[in-house]
Amino acid sequence: MRKKHTSIGIAILGCGTVGGAAALALVKDKDLLERKTGLSLNLKYIVDKNFDNAVKLGLNRKLFESKLQTVLGDPAVSVVVELIGGTTVAKDVIEKALVAKKNVVTANKALLAHSGAALLSLARKNHVTLAFEASCGGGIPIIRALCDGMIANRIDALYGIVNGTCNYILTQMIGQGQSYQEALAGAQKAGLAEANPALDVSGTDSAHKLAILASLAFGEKINFDAIPVRGIDSLQSMDVEFGRQLGYVVKLLAMAVRLESGLYLCVHPVFISSGHPLAWIPGPFNAVSVYGHRTGHTMYYGRGAGGSPTASAIVSDIVSTALGTQKLLFRNLGIWGDRAKKAKQIPSGEIVSRFYLRFVVSDAAGVLAKIAAVLGRNGISIASVLQKEGVEGSGKQRGRVPVVITTHQAKEKNVRKALISLRTAKLALENPVCLHIVDEQEESF
Ligand code: HSE
Predict the structure, then answer these.
(1) Is the same domain home to 113 and 197?
(2) I need a labelling partner for 224 at 20 to 30 A (CA). Which of 2, 64, 159, 296 fits?
(3) Are 388 and 420 contained in the same domain?
(4) What is the atom index within ligand 1 of the atom nearest the CA of 165?
(5) Where are the alpha helices (DSSP H) in 277-382?
(6) Residues with Cβ within 8 Å of residue 79, at least 6 apart in sequence
(7) Is 403:368 a contact under the CB 8 Å cutoff?
(8) Is residue 209 flagged as an active site residue?
(9) pLDDT digits 0-9 by tens, 150-189
């Protein structure tokens, strides 16, 4: 006799790109999921204010519901999937669902980065779970890797390209020589960047994901507001080209490194060697490198955005919630934000790194020597100098040339101090450009 499948009632809140894709995955892949998991995943409700997208996708109108209370009051619903986004309505809705003793699945990285620990605690109090694989890296099972496959490791570092929009823009700047504005316009035309791309290009979206990943990787509570964040919006094609000539590519990296004095977390556009494992990640793809003390370097790669890959992560969370795996991990592991100790986050000024510096200087005798003297006084050792012959400029540009200096390891606060001195002394005629050069992480075994 055929085994009777356990029936799981599901409600999806928010039917935009991701909500619609998740609903379609549950409906279209029902048989496949039943065969693979032994579960009958029954989408019972799609809750939204309007159902235009759901109608367009051909979803059954019987699923449409506008009242959250109906869903929360239905004992047949055991998993509520929040795909509204944002940190206000979504927070209220998740809290109500947890209090109503519904397991919650969410893709909401902004909310988790700010309030993850409190929501996990609320879930625990109500004996239900909160799962969020879809919050980071779209279809890449990176959260599962940190909570399960990599659990035997002390994590030493995590480096991520976790924003597809930025990686697409940078790939166009590097490969096609486009300016930031041209590459952004192309990304918007290709549907890869939002009409308002601020959250992506400012680095904030990457920082949200970094806070979530680092919290699980290190098993410590991360203060999102203490993460230094810089986006790609002020990046100039001149620096991308100088970097190329020096053997580097620019990437927006979300980094979390365990140092003796604490954790260093940041999101910055940085130069990495063209041979670095993260250098080849193309276009809108994401990748996360995780360094464990037993595994050494591991890397997770895939599509970090888009309805279908994100729906894959959401359905996997629904399955693991329904099977009870999520409950076991949530009950037993000590890495969850509500249980973990507060991380000691190292201020960026204390960080030692190599740097790429670009100055606009007067093309005159002795200028380079004076710049080198200021750097030297601040303990900064020069590794290379690149200056092209001055192009005959006109007007304001006449007699000005760009000079690129790369440094050996230096403390960031010393570099900042030197740059201020150079600007004050008018040796740097414009604000200097300063980017970290990130070397490949050493493996610790
Ligand atoms: N906007 C994000 C990106 C996807 O461009 O990668 C959602 O996290």
Answers:
(1) no
(2) 296
(3) yes
(4) 5
(5) 307-323, 325-332, 367-377
(6) 8, 9, 10, 11, 102, 103, 104, 105, 318, 321, 322
(7) yes
(8) yes
(9) 999 999 999 999 999 999 999 999 999 999 999 999 999 9
For residue 107, give every residue at least 6 positions away whose Cβ sits within 8 Å of its Cβ, in sequence order, or none: 18, 82, 83, 85, 132, 134, 135, 310, 313, 314
Query: Is 202 within 8 Å of 231 (Cβ atoms)?
Result: yes
Mutation probe of ligand 1 site: the residue of 111, 140, 165 with most atoms within 8 A of C-beta: 165
The domain boundary residue, chosen from 85, 110, 135:
135
Kindly state whether residues 166 and 91 are assigned to the same domain: no
As for how many domains the chain has, the answer is 3
> Does one domain contain both 131 and 146?
no
Residue 296 forms part of a structural domain: yes
Could you say which of 135, 154, 174 is where a domain stops?
Answer: 135
Q: Whose CA is nearest to atom 7 of ligand 1?
A: 305
Q: Are residues 147 and 291 in the same domain?
A: yes
Tell me which residue range forms the domain holding 375.
Answer: 349-438
Q: How far is the CA of 13 from the centre of ligand 1 (A)?
A: 19
Residue 2, pLDDT above cutoff 70: no
Distance 108 CA to ligand 1 centre (A): 11
CATH of the domain at 252: 3.30.360.10
Range 374-386 average pLDDT: 97
User: Does residue 119 fall inside a structural domain?
Assistant: yes
> Which residue among 91, 209, 221, 251 is the active-site one?
209
Ligand 1 center–CA 304 separation, angstroms: 7
pLDDT digits (tens, 9 = 90+) for 199-217: 999 999 999 999 999 999 9
67 shares its domain with 118: yes
Mark whether 18 and 63 lie in a shared domain.
yes
**Tens-place pLDDT, residues 288-317:** 999 999 999 999 999 999 999 999 999 999
**200 pocket-lining for ligand 1 (C-beta < 6 Å):** yes
- Please report whether residue 313 resides in a domain: no
pLDDT at residue 391 in the model:
59
At residue 5, the pLDDT reads: 82
* Closest protein CA for atom 8 of ligand 1: 305
Which ranges in 131-283 belong to alpha helices (H)?
142-144, 164-176, 180-189, 198-201, 204-218, 237-245
Tell me the CA–centroid distance for residue 29 and ligand 1, in Å. Answer: 25
**pLDDT higher than threshold 80 for residue 149:** yes
Q: What is the pLDDT of residue 262?
A: 98
Average pLDDT over residues 111-137: 98
331 is a domain residue: no
- Token code pair at residue 355: 């740097």
* Ligand 1 neighbourhood includes 317 CB (under 6 angstroms): no
Q: Reply yes or no on whether the pLDDT at 1 is more than 60.
A: no
Euclidean distance between CA atoms 143 and 337, whole angstroms: 13
**Do residues 50 and 154 both lie within one domain?**
no
Q: What angle do CA 264, 268, 270 make, to 5 degrees?
A: 105
The answer to whether residue 324 scores a pLDDT higher than 70 is yes
The per-residue pLDDT for 142 is 98
